[in-house]
Amino acid sequence: MATTNSEIIKVENLKKNFSGLEVLKGVSFSLHKGEVLGIIGPSGSGKSTLLRCVCQLEKITDGSISICGQNMVTDGVYVDKKTLRKIGLNVGLVFQNFNLFPHFSVLKNITEAQRVVLGKEKSEAEETAISLLKKMNLEQKASCYPCELSGGQQQRVSIARALALKPEVLFFDEPTSALDPELTGEILAVIRELAEEKMTMVVVTHEMSFARDTSDTIIFMDGGVIVEQGKEVIENPREERTKLFLKRFNEK
């Protein structure tokens, strides 16, 4: 599967079945370095499953995926486990429910993966963690535990943890869905800042204005397929299904 030098992700005809139920029905897209891809669509449309497949949390049924020019799976056949682990280091995922270790401090939540996955020394891992906590305005929370933080603070720690592994592309699976509306803005501000820094990102979101303003390309999914994609999907949708979805959203 040929890729260009700047092409970070290429997905071709991706299919995923769960017990005979076809959840993804031939999804194809590509993402280049420094771009932000926004994915929108109703619940159950396959958005989160798509992310989980690219991040190796689910095995695909058929199709091909390459990341940073390396083939991860071709026509449903995966490369060897050693190569998969290497490819996986290029990808970071921020979950909607934070997934922090409750028995670890904020600092250890960020340093542990660096030490286990990257083999960093404790001092180097902590230096990286403190630098990222400063970026997230959470340096003073380093010794706290997740239960002592607000939802927005926990999500910022989760973002810092993902960034600590220095992935080439960062995935966000509805990063504000577990937050109160008043905390949503602080997470979206962090993602906007990363976009300004040209971090390559894929963001599944229900925040339409955020997707419109931040994404280089927007994909609208429904029923396991990409209905349409492009920069103007939210402002000028072409397909009737997209128009109906956005109309219902705007009427809420």
UniProtKB/TrEMBL annotation:
Pfam families: ABC_tran. Gene3D superfamilies: P-loop containing nucleotide triphosphate hydrolases. It comes from the Bacteria. Its EC number is 3.6.3.28. It is a peripheral membrane protein. One of its GO terms (cellular component) is plasma membrane. InterPro entries: AAA+_ATPase (IPR003593), ABC_ATPase_HisP-typ (IPR030679), ABC_transporter-like_ATP-bd (IPR003439), ABC_transporter-like_CS (IPR017871), MetN_ABC_transporter-like (IPR050086), P-loop_NTPase (IPR027417). The keyword Membrane applies. Transmembrane segments: none annotated. Keywords: Amino-acid transport, ATP-binding, Cell membrane, Hydrolase, Membrane, Nucleotide-binding, Transport. It is an enzyme of class 3 (hydrolase). Belongs to the ABC transporter superfamily. This is Phosphonate-transporting ATPase. It comes from Treponema succinifaciens (strain ATCC 33096 / DSM 2489 / 6091).
